[in-house]
Amino acid sequence: MKIIEDDLSSADVVELLAEHLDDMAKHSPADSIHALDLSGLRAPDVTFWVVRDNDDALLGCGALKELDKTHGELKSMRTSSAHRRKGVASAILSHLIQEAAGRSYTQLSLETGSGAAFDPAHALYERFGFRFCGPFSDYVEDPFSCFMTLKLS
């Protein structure tokens, strides 16, 4: 696996992100979906990476949004449905945590959905040390959202 910064211009990335938004729509009401669209992921405060295999097949993606100089937010973590259970999510999450630490962030947070469909994501984040917390940044309490954070040293 290789993890590379991406400009969101390739068709396979656009397709994976559309799959991500479609999946969110199946499990959360529209006003509770906080996934960024392509324009949101191209914002200057967001850096986007893809995970590809040695044959250049897209395995997954993830982004890091700078909330302030010490606090980052994970965005658009997604593994292609054809490549689940292969360590893709762990690889991109590890990369994003290292990147956040390299930027001298002291905290890394995320918002994800609630309910059984999101249990695997919650378990992944907990394995990496994230803990459930209240809303951060501009988020508000929402029964369809879970908030998690990781303190970085």
Description of the molecule:
By secondary structure, this protein is α+β, with helices and mostly antiparallel strands. The protein is 29% helix and 31% strand. The protein contains 4 helices and 7 strands. The protein has helices spanning 11-27, 38-41, 88-102, 119-127, and strands at residues 2-5, 46-52, 58-68, 71-79, 107-113, 131-133, 145-151. It has a 7-stranded mixed sheet, sandwiched between helices. The two termini are 27 Å apart.
- Mean pLDDT over the residues: 93
Secondary structure tally: strands: 7
From the spread of the alpha carbons, the general shape counts as globular
Number of helices: 4
Strand percentage lies at: 25-35%
Q: Give the distance, in angstroms, between the N- and C-terminal Cα atoms.
A: 27 Å
Helix amount, in percent?
25-40%
Radius of gyration: 14 Å
How would a crystallographer describe the biggest sheet?
A: 7 strands, mixed
What structural class should be given to the helix and strand makeup? Answer: alpha+beta
SSE order, one letter for each helix or strand: EHHEEEHEHEE
The low-confidence runs, each spanning 5 or more residues with pLDDT under 50, are: none
